[in-house]
Amino acid sequence: MGAKHGRMAVLPADLNAPATLEDPKTADQVRNVLAETITQVRRRKLDTRTANALAYVATSLLRAIEVGDIEGRLKELEERRGKGSDGSI
What we know:
By secondary structure, the chain is mostly helical. It has two helices and no strands.
């Protein structure tokens, strides 16, 4: 995909980003990264191919965050109910 016909999308050296970037761990943080990506595309500092790849990965990350959140909530409910790991009540 990215290297089709020998071309690769490359991030510019300077995206006017802070020196240290933390990995997004919440849906809000992913949203902020996507908003920054849109801003960079509009300023023509990030090519659309790279932005598309980031959006694709962000969608997967959002899904994983949602599933992890639901799993955590379910575990908490099961513990409150007294349900053991063997499925007994």
